[in-house]
Amino acid sequence: MKKTNLVVGGSIIVIVFAAALVGAIGTPYDPTQIDAADRLAPPSWSHWFGCDEWGRDVFSRTLSGAAITVAIAGLTTLLATAAGTIVGVSAGFLGGWLDKAVVAVMDALLAFPALVMAIAMTTLLSGASLAPVIALSVAYVPYVVRVVRTGVLTIRQADYITASSIMGNSAAYTLARHVAPNVVGLVTVISTAIFGWALLAESALSFLGLGLPPPAASWGGMLSDSRNYFADAPWLAVVPGLAISFSLLGVNLLGDGCRDLLDPRMKRA
Amino acid sequence: MSMAPGSPILRVDRLQVSTLAGRRIVDNVSFGMLPGEIVALVGESGSGKTTIGRAILRLLPDGLACTGGDIALRGDSLTATPPRELRKIRGGSIAAVFQDPMASLNPSLKVGRQMMEALRLHEDVDAHEARLRCLAMLERVRIENPQRCFDEYPGKFSGGMRQRFMLASVLLTHPAVLIADEPTTALDAIVRREIMEQAVELTREVGTAILLVSHDLGMVAQYAERSVVLKGGRVMDQGDARQVLLQPRVDYTRTLLDAFPERALAGGGSTRRSPLVRVRNVDVAFRKSRKSILSRKEYVRAVRDVSFDIRSGEVLAVVGESGSGKSTVGKALVDLYKPSRGEILFANCIERSGGGKGGARTRPQVQMIFQDAGGSLDPRMTIKQAVAEPLRAGGIAAAAERLRRAKDMLAEVGLGDDMHDCYPHQLSGGQRQRVGIARAIVGGGDLIVADEPVSALDVSIQRQILDLLKQLHSAYGLTYLFISHDLDVVEELADRVMVMQRGCLVEIGSRDAVFDDPRHPYTRALLEATPRIRRVAPSRYALASLTNRHADPPSGHRFDVPAAEPPEHAVERACMVEVADDHFVRCIPSVECGGTAGSRGEADSEDLPWA
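Output (structure tokens, whole complex):
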């Protein structure tokens, strides 16, 4: 029963990643090709999801958008998780002034809403194609640090850490062999959460026009463009909207499933 | 089963409690309680004793339900009582005290208010009268200065004080039945004794019957009049408490009694062996957390000027109540705490002297066995990996060789091949402790510090682990520093015993000397307070008030009882005086004879007579 989350979430994520792959390799139509004849064409056999106000194929644009969104969200997750885990584990395990400094900086960062900070940073870094990735990573690192550091603080109190030190193991070995494996579960769960947030935030940034510049396709951008045509062509809003919701659902289910799977104490003996 | 004359106040009749899946937790249990009687439910974990208590309160946890039988209070069935009526009965006619008083006390309400609330819920009294009755009750449970305690929050008090508050507040309403579920398990021996005696005395006055739920056979034999022995939810035997427990008629009770620790004849501790570790004038101090960054650094001395030897191949037990510093001594030996003063010498190589580094790393291996074996094992390592781990630090490079040795060791502690790839959470408590022991011994350690290794285990499992510890002790020629508050276990295992109080060593000697001829008042109080199943007098139950039969101190001395908070730089004049061969007691020279007191200076620390 617990596996259901993992299977359903995993399948959704596989579909989303497959779509992204197709979007990156080759779509049925060129996602940026304008065709006046097909302007606002409803869904049909030749254009499954219809066409937008420029006559571009919405299906192709959705796939292409998937590639961009997944790439940005994935990179953000990798960067934020890696940086956050390193900082969080060191701060939690070593303690002392380093810990105090890290907590102070992270609290300061957390005081800004992530999206507002991402908007500010994207504006500052405008032009760079990795601007959203860097901006979102910086915004999410504090969340990873907070979760990982708290986890490490609990683990550090455990008798098995004491036992390791009595055995004569070095701090580095204890960190690598006993502390790190026990935060893997936490890191996995927080990283899936961040993938979800980053996906949503990327859409929000493109919706606000801060994503990749047009004519590149992105789900947020498509949603934004659809506003003026909603009455005539509702599919323009429904398709990217569903794409975003569907991906988020998958990410969240996968996150829950991973946590259940990775925590050995939840397994039945 | 014979019912005593008179009608029972509480009657449990063929009670059945089952899980939703239909497994019976309590099966066909019947017993009765007379007014003012103390009835004990005894059994190991999983025997259903707590569940029965809960069923009587009609407070079964989710997933359990009463599926048969009846519980009647004064002849009225409780199973048919509507919830509204039940609330009046609970806390009114039937009261309960649990193991953890803090879980029953609201930390954000003053003690007095909580007591008055309970009273006024059940009786129509005005605030003034309620206050007076509460204060009177607090005085009855011997709380000093009840007026002041009344306006304090529960967090201010020790576990024993909190349990006294609980007792006072539940007895305010003069309940007919008091369900006491392991009421003193979390408390130290002396406090435990006081609370039990007060509970018995009070309930005698009021006529309350006590249902004592406990795993502690000694305590049951001491205080209960009748007892019901449970196993797996079934009644094994019931009747007069002492007969049932001390002259067991059924196999199960006999097994329990046999499993109980017992002193072996002829303790081998009398022979003097060469010291493996010398502990000299060791202080361990901890910094108190400062209220502000500007305030002065303050220290708590958890261990105060303690000196002793651990002799090669012996079992040296450390006893004392919580906060006596016994665990701190153990942790200083495994290098978890640095002594702030004094030194710990391993087989003549100076190491870890107070302050400064530079101790040689060549020292005998010291390993540790923890009380919570589960917590001491990494949840992400199989037990095979866990046992192999100390070998890595011990310098065995080949992983295959480490695993092979780990497997041999696991086999030796009685864990078969099929278990070697298990994770700790897949094992039982006893099996986990076996893994902990295997890990401590596998590296060829000389000294094993065992910190309450069997305290969390049931009697029968405790027996197995004790046997294993003894067997390994002789097979490997190990030396144990055995830290425990359980005097029964200590009496069985130890060659020598050291008694600690408030961070000080107050008495040290061979096991027989300390147990049979205790000299220090604290040792005496400790021994008297612990109910010992093998020493329960066969006579009928009687309240034995704490008699302070002090032995005479050695001439020219008086006994020293360490102060709770000694002034920081007080001149400690106490010294260890030999009262019998190899048996020393902490005393203060009563006359000014500087010679004796001065002898405990640092100069001749190599050859302390009591070490």
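The two ends of chain A are 16 Å apart (CA to CA).
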